[in-house]
Amino acid sequence: MFIASGWKDFEVLDTGNGEKLERWGDYLLARPDPQVIWPCANERMWQKAHAHYTRSERGGGAWDFHTKLPEKWVISYQDLKFYVRPTGFKHTGLFPEQAANWDAMAGMIKKRPGARVLNLFAYSGGATLAAAAGGAEVFHVDASKGMVQWAKENAVASGLADRPIHWMVDDCAKFIQREIRRGRKYDGIIMDPPSYGRGPGGEIWKMETSFYPFLQEVAKVLSDDPLFVIINSYTTGLAPSAVAYAADSVFGPKYGGRTEAGELGLMVRDSGLVLPCGATGRWTPDGGK
């Protein structure tokens, strides 16, 4: 398991009964988590939550605010700063467990200043900022204009607005096809594909059937001397080993190497447990040596 243990502005305080209680800076948020099938360790702590997201039996859900919160606020990870806020889909605009990948990626990028890194399905830019801070030229691609704007604001807050970051609102599959035609190459690629989605032309994306063909196309924009490919998945039931097998079968024949795969995790303060937070695979030409 890859554990993101370097946070100071964020922590999981407790988990239990299908929920997690987290501290985001000065504010405590309680949110659903289907992986949590055990009881909580500190019931009294939950009464201090500033907001609680409750799922609806009809689908979706809503926040119940016990106190007035700012529209958004900043939390830090090392020198990176991120705006967070409770959204209508229970998310806050940041996945803290990904810091484990940010650290690994930044270390690899420092070996090659100026490396070209492509961040696909890039969301609010956590990996983009980590790569840029490490010295990479970053190409940030996401289909949501609002999320790209959020990522830009995070870059400004982090003091990285002047770094070579290229912001693109685009469908990732169509972007890759254009890059193949242009002959452009990248030394590192990060991706966080959705479990399900629709493209601008109504194209249906399903992780089970769309991911592997997409990965084969992505391989065509990898440079002759690549640093890494990092794949994240929050698709229920998709094992880390499945991510590794897919990556090794696509990148192995040309580059060799291997994929180090596992769960991403966050320590839980009041129980000592580690909360599993999705699968990740890190393919490198040296196999992580």
General description of the model:
There is one protein chain. The strands form 4 sheets. An 8-stranded mixed beta sheet has the order 1-16-17-15-12-9-10-11. It is of the alpha/beta class and 289 residues long. Helix 2 (99-109) packs parallel to helix 3. The radius of gyration is 19 Å and the shape is globular. It has 7 helices and 17 strands.
Please name the defining characteristics of this protein.
289 residues, alpha/beta, 8-stranded mixed sheet, 5-stranded mixed sheet, 7 helices, 17 strands
Name the average pLDDT.
Answer: 94
Major sheet: 8 strands, mixed
How many beta-strand elements?
17
Helix content: 25-40%
Shape: globular
Residue stretches low in confidence (pLDDT < 50, at least 5 long) are none
Tell me the structural class: alpha/beta
Terminal residue distance: 17 Å
Radius of gyration of CA atoms, rounded to a whole number: 19 Å
Helical stretch count? 7
Percentage of residues in DSSP E strands: 25-35%
What is the succession of H and E elements? EEEEHEEEEHEHEHEHEEEHEHEE
The main sheet orders its strands as 1-16-17-15-12-9-10-11
In short:
The chain is of the alpha/beta class and 289 residues long. The chain has helices at 43-46, 99-109, 126-133, 145-157, 172-182, 207-218, 240-255, and strands spanning 2-3, 10-16, 19-24, 27-32, 51-55, 61-65, 73-77, 80-84, 116-120, 137-142, 165-169, 188-191, 196-198, 204-206, 228-233, 258-267, 274-284. The protein is globular and about 55 Å long.
